[in-house]
């Protein structure tokens, strides 16, 4: 393995790091907008998110290309980590391994941030669903099962008050 592989890997890891950091910033901003219920702000982020998705796709395609070329050259082509470990220079191998570990840690952090945002949205939807139910039933709790079916028929918004 020559220095071109080292520089290719280093370039890829730099690009990946930048995209991961940008993704973290976007997820953090999105969480703040979700918490503030800023619908206009969320809509304004759409273009930024689309551009970020494209950058992530480019990283994925570049990763696949690097691994395919490595496999064709007789180098490990199963993962960036194993390719970085195949670098002959000990210092370069340590540096690349550190950068791969950092990228993996950031990926895990991004997963946590995405899950946090998803949970926030799910809680909001649950809350809105409960509010709609209260509006639809006029705030009266309806029993799930009842002997007298007449009491459970109709909606508070459409029918006359009983």
Please tell me about this protein's structure.
It is a single chain. This protein has 162 residues and is an all-alpha fold. The chain has a domain at 3-112. It has five helices and no strands. The chain has helices at residues 3-35, 39-44, 46-72, 80-85, 90-137. Helix 1 (3-35) runs antiparallel to helix 3 (46-72) and helix 1 (3-35) packs parallel to helix 5. The chain is elongated, with a radius of gyration of 26 Å. The protein starts with a helix and ends in a 25-residue tail after the last helix. The model has no long low-confidence stretch (mean pLDDT 87).
Characteristic terms for this protein:
162 residues, mainly alpha
Concise synopsis of the structure shown:
The chain is an all-alpha fold and 162 residues long.
Describe the biggest sheet? none
Query: Which stretches of 5+ consecutive residues score pLDDT under 50?
Result: none
Q: How would you state the average pLDDT, rounded?
A: 87
Helix proportion range: over 70%
Measured on Cα atoms, how large is the radius of gyration? 26 Å
Separation, N- and C-terminal Cα atoms? 83 Å
Beta-sheet strand percentage? under 5%
SSE order in H/E notation? HHHHH
Give me the secondary-structure category.
Answer: mainly alpha
Secondary structure layout:
Layout lengths: L2 H33 L3 H6 L1 H27 L7 H6 L4 H48 L25
Helix pairs in contact: 1-3, 1-5
């Amino acid at each position: 393995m020559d220095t071109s592989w080292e520089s290719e890997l280093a370039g890829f890891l730099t690009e990946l790091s930048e995209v991961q950091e940008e993704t973290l910033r976007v997820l953090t901003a999105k969480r703040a907008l979700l918490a503030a219920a800023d619908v206009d702000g969320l809509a304004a982020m759409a273009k930024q998110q689309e551009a970020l998705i494209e950058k992530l796709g480019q990283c994925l395609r570049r990763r696949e290309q690097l691994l395919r070329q490595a496999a064709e050259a007789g180098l490990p082509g199963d993962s960036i980590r194993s390719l970085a470990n195949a670098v002959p220079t000990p210092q370069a191998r340590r540096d690349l391994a550190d950068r791969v570990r950092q990228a993996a840690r950031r990926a895990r952090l991004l997963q946590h941030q995405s899950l946090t945002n998803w949970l926030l949205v799910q809680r909001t939807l649950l809350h809105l669903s409960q509010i709609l139910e209260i509006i639809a039933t006029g705030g009266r709790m309806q029993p799930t099962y009842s002997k007298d079916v007449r009491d459970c028929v109709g909606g508070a918004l459409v029918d006359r008050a009983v």
